[in-house]
Amino acid sequence: MKPSLKRQVGLSTSVLAISAMMSTGAIADIEERMAAAERIIDEVFPRSSLTREEQLEEMRFFIEASEPYRGMSINTVAESLPTHVFEATVMAEAFEELTGISVEHSIIQEGDLVEQMQTEMQSRRSIYDAYINDADSIGTHFRYDATIPLGEFMEAEWAHITLPTLDIDDFLGADMARDPDGVLYQLPAQQFANLYWFRYDWFQREDLQEEFRETYGYDLGVPVNWSAYEDIAEFFTGREIDGQTVYGHMDYGRRDPSLGWRFTDTWLSMAGAGDPGLPNGLPVDEWGIRMEGCHPVGSDITRGGATNGPAAVYSLVKFIDWLENYAPPEASGMTFSEAGGVPAQGNIAQQIFWYTVFTTDMLGEGLPVVNEDGSPKWRMAPSPHGAYFEEGMKRGYQDAGSWTFFHHTDASRAQAAWLFAQFTTAKSTSLEKLHHGLTPIRHSNVQHESFLARSEELGGLVEFYNSPEQNLWTDTGMNVPDYPRMSQLWWPNMADAISGEKTPQEALDTLAQQQDSIMARLERANAQPNCGPRMNEPRDAQYWLDQPGAPKPKLDDEKPQGITVPYDELIASWQQ
Q: Among residues 200, 174, 128, which one has the least CA distance to residue 425?
């Protein structure tokens, strides 16, 4: 969309004001930097949804707007993904050459990043000038007064340093970073989904199709429900294909913070534990938290939540069963980052919960999952859903790592960091970043001919992000009032169940009670006067199970008939 007239006038006024103050030397400096911009566009960012002339206009904006901050050094931070490594190396260097602002864009593990951010929010003392923090924390950011509401600052304090062509409506995940009133708090920098991954070449083999049909009574294809996924996992596990032992499932189970993401990133919702309604389920979301308006009222089943209800228990039981019975033995000792690239080794038939951020690991000459012509032997598709799932529920999770700024940060440092944040997400630069990291953030980029041309190479990623269905994959959302504290509760409890120290019911009971304890403390302290928790009084669980919706009573049959769909038909429906 075109920038508003107001924003265009704002830029013109700003440029005129800056120009009026410039000496001849400063103007010469700008022209030298513009010459560098032409080279940077040609060599570093040759692909863009903009014309070259439009790219140069964006580069001129960064050069001129950065004049008051020239010579500064700023510190920003992001998690260890290829996309952010590209920002830290290629983009930071180009930005410094254009603007004279030096950026130390630190790359650290996500758990460490969340801990640093939590420390900074509590102490109100700067550690970094800006964070790329998942939009999962939006419920935290808008409820506390520590985070800068970007939507408001872009129209006021930061209007003169906001790129006129930033075009928030072009961002795929902007709605994930808004508060209940629609105010933007974070700016998406990367985005990826959890999808189903499978060996398309094996699924197409006529001998395997015939054997599967004879064994299970239906066709081998993309599983629509967990019953089919389990049948396929059983069918492939232990089979010898291409000279190696195959496993029908892949996951990870190490006692590690990343184990928590495996569950908070929609596992309960995929099982059907929550309620229909986008983006996260109303009134009960994918964490099992019941909402009344914008107020959390409980996650334990006795308060109307579903964190420890029958559907949640079913989801954890299935996770443990599949990890033990169908995954490689070493999977239980792996973390998120260690497990992500395992399917590329060639002995995994399918993975129910596979992050598309690992697409880059599945490409490359010589990999056993890539044909000689470079095309993939694998495909990605929507993850199957569990027995409690209802139409109208979210289908899966999307991570939207987003630029985040705090009020207590030195104003000039935050403003310089805001310029860098925009540089990493601008239309001039973000398409090239997409091709390197495969974590799209803009509609204009996923619709660009250079990305569409990679369709056969990327195994369904292009089709997914050009389908309206991708809107059914959302982030954690606004319901979690303190993401840093509450997300840390998940992995120890899930690990207790996986190790057998607790039953799944016991682990989820503990988790629900711990979540409610945090929310009750926030309520007592009135720590979040804006949409803070208002906890329900506990009552007999059966009362809630007798009500419509979540928490849902236990099903008599938690393994209905398996259902599959041919992959090519699925892709055709996306394309339509």
A: 174
Query: Tokens representing 376?
Result: 């993939």
| Coil/strand/helix, residue 141 | helix
Q: How far apart are CA 515 and CA 507, in angstroms?
A: 12
Question: Which residues, in sequence order, are bridge partners of residue 376?
Answer: 370
- Look at residue 484 and give its three-state secondary structure: helix
Contact 551/566 with Cβ under 8 angstroms?
no
pLDDT digit string (tens) for 485-540?
999 999 999 999 999 999 999 999 999 999 999 999 999 999 999 899 999 999 99
Query: Which CATH number goes with the domain that contains 420?
Result: 3.40.190.10
Identify which of 248, 227, 228 has the alpha carbon closest to the alpha carbon of residue 238.
248
What backbone phi and psi angles, to 5 degrees, belong to 130?
-165, 150
Whether residue 112 is found in the same domain as residue 187: yes
Whether residue 279 has a cis bond before it, omega within 30° of 0: yes
Q: How many CA atoms lie within 13 A of 425 on its CB side?
A: 33
Contacts of 366 (CB under 8 A, 6+ apart): none
Residues 204 and 125 in one domain: no
Q: Quick one: 81 and 160 in the same domain?
A: yes
Instruction: Domain of residue 79: give its range.
Output: 5-192+401-442
pTM for the model stands at 0.92
- If you search the block for the tokens 């292009």, which residue do you land on? 462
Residue 191's φ and ψ, nearest 5 degrees, are -150, 135
The conformation of residue 307, written as its DSSP 8-state character, comes to: T
Residues 172 and 210 in one domain: no
493/251 Cα distance (integer angstroms):
17
Is residue 481 a contact partner of residue 516, using CB atoms and an 8 Å limit? no
Query: What is the chain's percent helix, strand, coil content, to nearest 5?
Result: 50, 15, 35
